[in-house]
Design brief:
alpha+beta, elongated, six-stranded mixed beta sheet, about 30% helix
Length: about 160
């Protein structure tokens, strides 16, 4: 079934709010990529450049109501930076702190966009899910010098019954 507003609309709203760069303290990171798909697939690709943001939408879950269908869409957001970009001295806690600060800045930007994520009209709302440094991805990609932060936003909207 096709919805009036779909996953592409939600992902477009996320991309718009994230923008081309993020500033953390006195440093600005400009995203090389803002892509969609399984994070490890992008991390394993030899031509991938950093920093990048990977959006991984789950399936839309519909819940029937008498006149409206409630649609829920969790989107996992993975922010990946190179340890060298972090400007770290090689001390792990400083690197992880940098990953956390960058990730928190991106998630804060999305939360500051308001409950409708800047989309005109009130069809979309969002809630913040679990967020934090993705230590598993950091360890899996340590040989490549990559740091990762993962956050989840759940989007909800309603559409008329077909």
């Amino acid at each position: 079934m096709a919805w009036v507003f779909g996953v592409d609309d939600v992902l477009a709203a996320i991309r718009t709010q994230i923008g081309a760069s993020i500033t953390v303290g006195a440093h600005t990171l400009t995203w090389v990529y803002l892509v969609e798909g399984p994070p490890q697939r992008w991390l394993d690709h030899p031509d991938t450049q950093y920093p990048l943001i990977i959006l991984q939408p789950s399936d839309v879950t519909p819940t029937d109501g008498p006149a409206l269908v409630r649609l829920e869409l969790p989107v996992e957001i993975t922010i990946v930076i190179a340890a060298a970009t972090a400007g770290s001295t090689g001390v792990a806690p400083a690197m992880y702190k940098t990953a956390r600060l960058v990730g928190e800045a991106v998630m804060a930007k999305l939360m500051d966009a308001g409950p409708h994520l800047g989309v005109v009209g009130s069809w979309l709302t969002r809630a913040l899910g679990p967020c934090g440094v993705d230590y598993e991805t950091c360890e899996r990609n340590a040989d490549h010098g990559l740091l990762a932060y993962k956050g989840t936003l759940e989007f909800v909207w309603y559409e008329a019954q077909p």
